[in-house]
Amino acid sequence: MLHTIPYQNNWAYNDISRLVSSQVLLSESCIFCNVPLIDLPEDYLGDDNYEVLTELQLCPNCGWWSVSQAHSDKQMWDDELERMVFLYGGIGSLKELSLNDINEPLAEIRQYLIGKFGDRFVVNPKVFENVVASVFRNLDQNVVVTAYSGDGGIDAVMTDGSDLVGVQVKRYKSKIEVEQIRAFAGALYLHGYSRGVFVTTSDYQAGCKRTARLYAERGLPIQLYNAQNFYSALELSHYNTHSNWATREKILSIVQNSDLHPIFN
């Protein structure tokens, strides 16, 4: 049943899917990322006769969630110590998401990339610049993305105290060449930046790290982020801003406005 879930080119889990079974609902791992789910605080409503216990689980990687709701009715049994329990549930449903659309919510693009970083080459280049800027912003940096044209080779600007830091972002599949590092260093020098950060979706050719180190020795440090380095920063910024309580309230709001489905298998 899992293979029928339409996850291609979709991501934000803003609704409840009808494709739910006990296998999916009671899974301890995300059906997309296969990472362990975290348990969010439970929600309980009840009195002496009827109780409703809502349990929520969340994937810390991509944001997929599941909800199980046990309805316990003591009045359906003659024995006061027994209850009839009905189990209902729902899982996060995916919505359409176009990675090449500059109008898509940035938070949803970031969440998508955490789960499917291999699709980073499909993201609109300007959108990816905004993703990079948002990651550094969530890591306590002050960042401003420059205009599409006339940026002089600088895609974003960070401030670190009195220092100005120039950022260049290359959404490339091929490796970055040494000459591109030199051109970036020239742009930093001409515009008065004290240091630079170069981010690529691929990797660097041999000699790039040595070139960056030589510029650092001459007073112009350049930090290089390859795809793996940036993904680690993306994950860290996601966990830094992730609020279990905020997510819990959002899921409960969705549950209250939707019908959970009876679980029989």
Kindly state the number of beta strands. 11
Order of helices and strands: EHEEEEHHEEEHEHEHHE
Kindly report how far apart the N and C termini lie.
Answer: 12 Å
The whole-angstrom Rg is 24 Å
Shape: elongated
Mean pLDDT: 84
How does the helix and strand content classify structurally? alpha+beta
Binned strand content: 25-35%
What portion of residues is helical?
25-40%
Task: Characterize the biggest β-sheet.
Answer: 6 strands, antiparallel
* Tally of individual helices: 7
Which regions are unreliable across 5 or more consecutive residues at pLDDT < 50?
1-9
Summarize the structure.
With 265 residues, the chain is α+β, with helices and mostly antiparallel strands.
How would you describe this protein?
The protein has 7 helices and 11 strands. It is elongated. It has 265 residues and is an alpha+beta fold. The N terminus is likely disordered. Strands 1, 2, 3, 4, 5 and 11 form a 6-stranded antiparallel β-sheet that branches.
